[in-house]
Amino acid sequence: MPIYAYRCDDCGFSKDVLQKMSDPQLTDCPTCGKAAFKKQLTAAGFQLKGTGWYVTDFRGGAKAPTTAVSGAPAGGGAAPKADAPKADAPAAAAAPTPAPTKSD
């Protein structure tokens, strides 16, 4: 049997009700007694049953954050390394000089 969510428009009371699909819709609020109890539109819940499904399949939720072991930030951002070559370093050492040509 499905579970339906109801909410009162007057007092704001909300309740989840287990009902058959053929049962009539509730209209009277159990707290204030007014006919403002309406069914809400909610996302459907489901369970994967049977063989072949694992507990970790299709599990929603946030993954556990990784801890900083080697001093790297846990935020996942790329931190500049201290031993990385600088972009503004002189390019003279990197460019080879052309070999002199012999003229006979």
TrEMBL record:
The protein's name in its UniProt record: Putative regulatory protein, FmdB family
UniProt feature, compositional bias: Low complexity: 79-104
Protein origin, superkingdom: Bacteria
Residues in Putative regulatory protein FmdB zinc ribbon domain copies: 1-42
Region (Disordered): 63-104
